[in-house]
Design a protein that fits this description.
By secondary structure, this protein is α+β, with helices and mostly antiparallel strands. The protein contains nine helices and 24 strands. It is globular, with a radius of gyration of 21 Å.
Length: 370
């Protein structure tokens, strides 16, 4: 006989792990279906906004930020709308400073806590999920079957659950822009005695914008964001194109040279597109579901909302599940409305920020964002 769980969380990452922790803390039985952990050397996405601090405290996870693998981000500098750098200090945030994290370390710590907390961990790919009355029957590639009363989609931009439900009239899978990131991690020259400044710089250029931040490991994460048709062709295999692109910056190229960072490999490419589900939660037939993190809405990296929103949704998960199990479907509509409201506010803020850059108004990248 298959065991029935109150909730199944599909997907790993920060959203999935934090949701498992939050649900287990509230005494709910949780089955966690996720890919096997991959201990990569680096992972893009290391800026944790100040708003994440009270959420981590609520989840009992504040202590994770005390690890030396992370650092407080007291200042961000930007050359946006002007060539000179402008500082934005964390002193303006009531929640305190944000953080520049070692993404792999942070996720590994969350995974370890979630693995201990949940009722069942299945390291496998989702094969199918079928609604049977008020329950979900879930099967993985290796044949494992799980029965759950509620399902949470934490599969990121893949939106494995939500994408399937988008075929229903009540649910739409909506795309935003198609922003793409070219990213690399730079080391200082061997034997360098330069102490690199622990800072973050954002700089706009004709065909997009750059993000550079010193990681706690003393490596520099370097990202360039543009549209797929504007990004130089073959940049992921052509080091010279990457170097030439970096030289189009003023502040960041100077930082790289002054701090003796080495540009010796081409960048990798990844999607940074904005996309969302509408609604982000509901009842398919009579079985409940919700999407969290990037599966619900993925943001332009300029907003630095991604990880914080994932933690917020994870912290909300127990309330959604418990209310649904008690026959209250309205809470799912309220959650979906909150996600939609946040998405609309984000889009307005994003558009306002892009419009602040008037120097390149006639260039295609910026024209598209008018």
């Amino acid at each position: 006989m298959n065991q029935t769980f109150e909730v199944a969380v599909i997907g790993g990452g920060i959203a999935g792990a934090a949701a498992v922790i939050s649900l287990a803390q509230e005494g709910l039985s949780v089955a966690w279906i996720r890919p096997k952990w991959k201990g990569e050397a680096h992972k893009v996405g290391e800026s944790l906004a100040p708003a994440a601090n009270p959420i981590l405290e609520r989840l009992g996870l504040s202590h994770l930020m005390e690890n030396i693998s992370h650092r407080r981000a007291n200042s961000t500098f930007s050359a946006w709308g002007q060539s000179a750098l402008v500082e934005r200090n964390s002193a303006v945030h009531l929640e305190g400073a944000g953080s520049i994290i070692n993404r792999i370390k942070f996720e590994q710590d969350l995974f370890d806590i979630a693995n201990e907390a949940c009722s069942l961990v299945v390291e496998d790919a989702l094969q199918e999920f079928v609604e049977l009355g008020r329950e979900w029957q879930i099967r993985t590639s290796n044949g494992t079957k799980v029965i759950a009363c509620f399902v949470i989609d934490a599969t990121g931009r893949a939106q494995v659950i939500g994408k399937a439900l988008a075929q229903e009239k009540s649910t739409q899978r909506i795309m935003g822009d198609h922003l793409v990131a070219a990213y690399a991690f730079l080391r200082q020259k061997e034997g360098s005695d330069v102490i690199a400044t622990p800072a973050t710089i954002i700089e706009s250029v004709e065909d997009g914008w750059w993000y550079a931040s010193l990681l706690p490991s003393n490596e520099l994460t370097l990202n360039f964001y543009s549209d797929p048709d504007i990004m130089p062709k073959g940049i992921s295999i052509n080091l010279d194109k990457w170097k030439n692109l970096i030289q189009q910056t003023n502040q960041i190229s100077y930082w790289i040279e002054d701090a003796e960072f080495i540009v010796d490999t081409p960048p990798q490419l990844d999607s940074a597109a904005t996309r969302w589900l509408s609604p982000a939660a509901g009842v398919s037939g009579v079985a409940g579901w919700a999407a969290i993190g990037d599966a619900a809405v993925s943001f332009d990296p300029l907003s630095a909302h991604g990880m914080t929103t994932a933690l917020w949704a994870a912290a909300r998960s127990p309330d959604l599940v418990k209310a649904y199990l008690n026959g209250n479907n309205q809470i799912l509509r309220d959650y979906a409305d909150s996600v939609e409201k946040g998405r609309k506010e984000y889009l307005k803020q994003r558009n306002d920020i892009y419009r602040q850059e008037q120097r390149f108004a006639d260039k295609e990248f910026w024209h598209r964002r008018r």
